[in-house]
Amino acid sequence: MLIGLGAITTLLSRVTGFELDIFYLVISVVGASLVLIGVLQKRPVS
Known about the structure:
The protein is mostly helical. The chain is about 75% helix and about 0% strand. The model has no long low-confidence stretch (mean pLDDT about 75).
């Protein structure tokens, strides 16, 4: 959800022309990190 929020905000900022705040970049990075951690934890141990 955080990645989606960051992507939507980025697209809207390009369409409407407002300046993108660093907060939304941080949200996107945190969301991507959480997804990556979740994927790594579900990897089967061989």
